[in-house]
Amino acid sequence: MSFRKRNIGLSPGVDRNAVPNTAQPAPEGTPGIRPSPDDGRPTTSTGTRSLDNLLAGHAGLPMGKLLFIEENGTTDFAGALLRYYAAEGVIQDQKIHVVGVPEQWGRTLPGLIGSAESLDEKRSDRRKDDRMKIAWRYERLGEFGAVAGSRDAPSTPGEQDSTAKEAPAFCHAFDLTKRLTHPSITNMSFIPLMPSKESPFAAILKRLQTAITSSPANTIHRIVVPSLLNPTMYPPGSCQPENVLQFLHALKALMSAHATRVTAMITFPLSLFPRSSGLVRWIELLSDGVIELCPFPHSADATATSGAATSQEEPPQGMLKTHRLPVLHERGGGSYQNVGQDWAFILSRRRFEIKPFSLPPAEGDTEAQDTAAAGGMPKKSDLEF
Amino acid sequence: MPSQPPLPPLLAPYVSTLPDASLTLVSSILGATSNWLVLRFLHAALSSQSASTFGADDLQNGIKKKVVLVSFMRSYEFWKTEAKRLGLDLTRLAEKHQFAFIDGMSELFYAQSPAPTSSPGMGSSPRTTLPMRGPPGAVPGRAPQPTAPVGTMGNPAAKQEPGIAKKLHFSGRGLASLDAMEKDIALVIEQQKTQMEEGDELVLIIDQPDLLLATTGPSMGIGATEMSEWITGLQQLAHATIVTLATDTPLIHNASGLGGQLATPIETEHAAFAIGLAHRARSVMQLRTLETGAAKDVSGVLRISRGGGLGTGEDNLEEREALYFIQRDGGVTVFGRGES
C-alpha cells in the first residue's frame, strides 16, 4: 500500500513537503512579516499596497512603528485605510486590538479578493495593450522600484518568482462592498472607552499592555484606533494634553519595548482639531509616521474634477501629504526620492491607490488655446530684433 | 560618493567645543528631527577615547569626556543602533563608565510590568539564507537570559537591560515630581563623577524635555518656569549641557495670539520655555526643512546662531547657516548653500 496517490508524480510531492521546512526557520518566517528591502528590518503590510510603497523604501510598515493618518473634512477615506489595515491583520492571523469602537466595526471589514499581486497582475494585463513595451523582463522590477524607490530590491526576476510562489502573500486586496469572513476574525479584541475619573486612556493602556505582554512571543499585534479624540466617542476630558499625550507617549514606550511585534495605526479628524494647534502638533511629534489626507470637495460632475491625467483614468479624490515617514525622519529625513512629491489618492471599490499627482491639460479650454495660438502670440515677422 | 567622516568638518567646531557651564539649544521640527545632531554630539565627546589616534580630536587636548544622555522620546535601542553606525558601542562605553543612558520614555507615566524582551531571533538579523546556522556572534549578549526564569513577575528591582542606568518615573504632580526626577538624574551623574579624574568633563544631553511640559502642563502644576528651573538645576551638575526642543510653528507662534485664536496653555507654556532657554543658551542650533519644499539631496537647513547667554569677549562663536543631508547609511554631509 502506498500512502501517496498514484496519479501524482513523485517530485512535486517531495517538493511540497520540502518548501515549508526550509521556509520556517528563517527569522521572518512569521506570515505577514518580511524584511525591508532598505535595511532589512521586519515590516508588515498596511493592507494597502500603494501605502506600503510610500513608506520610505521599506515597502511596508516597520514593526514597532505608529502611523498617524489625518483627514480633513467629513469623508472617511482614512477609515477605509484603517479597515484595510485591520483586515490585513486578520488574514495574517495577527492579533487586532481596536480601541474605542463597538464590535460592529469589526463586521464592516472589507472582504478578501486575493493577494495584492494577483490583482495587480490582472490590472496590468488589461493595461498591457496600450502601453509601450521597452524591456519586458524588467517590468516587474520597474513597478516595484518606481514606487518603492529601493536600491536593494530583489535582484533577479527568477528569485522574485520563486519567493512569490513559496511565501504566503504579504499584502492582500480587499473589496469594500463585501464583508470579510475569516476564521480568525473572532480573534479581534475591542477595547471600549470607560468613563472614569482618571484619564480615560489609562484603562485602555492597561489592557493593551497585559494583552501584549501575556501573549506568546511570536504573536504579532496590531493596534487600531479609529478617529482618535472624536467627541462622539471620547469623553470630554480626553483631549486634555495630559491625558492624550501621556497615552500616546506610553503607547510609544509600549511599542518600543516590543518593537518586533507591534504596529499601530491611528486616524484623526483634522476638522475638529486643526493642524495649527499645539496639541495636534505634539501628537504628530509623538508619531512615527504622519500622513494627511485632503479630499477634494465633492462635485457631481465627475469630469470637472481636475487631476485626471487622461480621460480614461479615474479622477483622484484627494491629495495626500506625507509629513513624516517612519524610520526615515527618526534618523533625520531626506535622501528619499519620493519625499516632497505631491500625491493623489483614488479609492475605488477594490483598491486604495496612491499615485503622483499631476495636473491635467486644461480640458474644455480649447477656445482659449486656439485664440492663444492664433492671435495671442506675436508672429515671428512681427518681432523686431 | 566616498564615505563621509562621522563628524562633518563644518560641524566639528560647534559640537566639540563646549565651554564650561554652557548651554546649547538644539531645536527641531516635525520634518527635521534632531537625533542625528545629538548623535554627532555623542560622537564628538566619546569617540576620542575609543579611537585615540584619530585625527579629529586635536581640539580635545586629551581631556576625557563623559556623557549622560536623558532621552524622553526615544528608546535605548534606537540610540544604540544609530550610534553603532558611527562606530560607537554605547553598551561598552556604559560599562567603562563613560556613558550613561537615562530612560525617560519606557516607564515615565505608566510602569510596565516586567516582561521578557521580545524574541531575539526576529528583527535583529537581516535575511539569513542559511537557517541552520545562526549568525555568529549575534546572540552571546543574550545568552545569560534563558537561564533566568522567563516571564516571571516580580523582579522589577533586578538590573534592567544593560546600558540603561536609570528609568525615570513621573509620579504625583508639580515640583515634587520634578524634584524626584532631578534626584534620579543627579544620582547617575554622581556615579559617573566618582570615576572621573581631574580635568574630565561631563556633558549632559537632555533630549526633548519639552515632552514633559506638554504631557503635564499647568493643570498638573508644571509650567515653563518650573521646567526652566529644572533645567538650571541639572545644568549645575554638568560641565556643559545640550537640550533639544521642538520648535514647530504652532508651538511657538500661536502663543502670541496674532492669528486671532486664543492660545492654549500647551502653546503658551511651550513658547515661554523654548524662548527662555534660547535666551540662556550659548548657542542655538536650529534645524528646519527647506522653505522651498523637499529636495532630493538636502534634508534640511541647520542654522547656528548665538544665544542670549553667550559671554561677551572671550568666547567667540561664528554664526552660520548651512544645509545638511543625511544619507541612507546614516552618514551626514553639511555644506553651505551652493556648495555640494
TrEMBL record, chain A:
Stretches with biased composition (Polar residues): 42-51
Subcellular location: Cytoplasm; Nucleus
GO biological process: tRNA wobble uridine modification
Pfam families in alphabetical order: PAXNEB
Pathway per the UniProt entry: tRNA modification; 5-methoxycarbonylmethyl-2-thiouridine-tRNA biosynthesis
Keywords noted in UniProt: Cytoplasm, Nucleus, tRNA processing
Keyword Ligase (UniProt): no
Protein family membership: Belongs to the ELP4 family.
Name used for this protein in its record: Elongator complex protein 4
From TrEMBL, chain B:
Residue ranges of the region described as Disordered: 113-159
Biased composition (Polar residues): 114-128
GO biological process, one term: tRNA wobble uridine modification
Listed InterPro entries: ELP6, P-loop_NTPase
GO cellular component, as recorded: elongator holoenzyme complex
PANTHER family from the UniProt entry: ELONGATOR COMPLEX PROTEIN 6
Family, similarity comment: Belongs to the ELP6 family.
Name of the protein: Elongator complex protein 6
Organism expressing this protein natively: Penicillium salamii
